[in-house]
Amino acid sequence: MRKALFGLVLATCAAAQPAPAVRAEVGKAYPELEALYQELHRHPELSFKEARTAARMAELLAGAGFQVGRAGGGVVGVLRNGGGPTVLLRTELDALPVQELSGVPWASEAPGVMHACGHDVHMASWLGAARALAARRDLWRGTVLMVAQPAEEIGEGAQAMLKDGLLTRFPRPDFAVAVHVTADLPAGSVGYASGWAMASVDSVNITLYGRGGHGAKPDQTVDPVVLAARTVLALQTAVSREKDPREPAVLTVGSIHGGTKHNIIPDEVRLQITLRSFDPKVQAGLIAAIRRIARGEAIASGAPREPLVEVDGDTLPAVWNDPALCDRLGAALGRALGPDKVARLKPDMVSEDFGAFGTAAGIPSVLLRLGAADPGRLQAAQAAGTPLPSLHSPRFVPALEPTLRTGALTLALAALEVLGKP
Description:
alpha/beta, Aminopeptidase, Amidohydrolase
């Protein structure tokens, strides 16, 4: 009787403290996770061309005991374990059109393509979490939905999966969680912004029309290069003078294309703009301002026709981290990793289509930032005021072991926090 009671106490303690059990599972799997990371890094694929990567994720999920399906070019794994909530854990499949310059032995073998945004880290961490959850079904009840989405880098993969029935053909999640690496936090730590976490984004193209001619006779032309210069400067007032200064927004003209030779005034100039904010009303107001300012500057210049202003595709929604879920996950991760390893962050103006699962689909969700920088190098860089290679850099390299281990542990523990208890 006493032995049975003692065993019950031990089982209860183990169920109440899942972190050691999950940490042990991640440790057992770690050599395979590192090998997988290096394999994925060597063979990156661009958005909506991730056939090899998707097949590999499907194969590994099936091997871990998940029922595997497909949606919108992505992979979906389902693991049911009795009644309880459903949690979605997301990773991304695609890489960037970047020529790698990192010099690591496992560098990309695909010319001009690199996992410069850490999606290879995400996939390996995601698989580690899937294996840990499958191995320790005694710790939870409910359903785990593993989602590997394509085309995050062009902001279309999440919507493609939703349009192809992700939330109707598979169990609808009660919660959604993802991680994303950052070079601004030390490896072994995680961070999160409660509420708005990442901005929405629109890409805007403007074609400004002039009347070309000889560069020595500008009086016989309408110079669209000068018109473009005036337009770029005027557009900055849309942010500085036309919106509530308490509402963040960024308007960046990323490219100007026009002309062919020193002494030729061209007929047209094209501008490409990225526009970011959190509030949809702010975003809509800024797009209206871009249209009005471009038209006004063209009229002031005597342009022969109105400019063409095109918003390229759908707005990528902002990422909203559910505050209540942030509190739960932050507390759980603080207990497991240590309170000094969990940071509260400010919102970031970069963008992510994870918002399609949360903001757009109405699912409480959190996107956690996963520290990927070597702690010593990060400290030295901060002291010197010289940042380490960031995401999208051809020289970005994560501090591998602590980053992968922490990523897998973080995703698994986040799932266990919201799943039902045995």
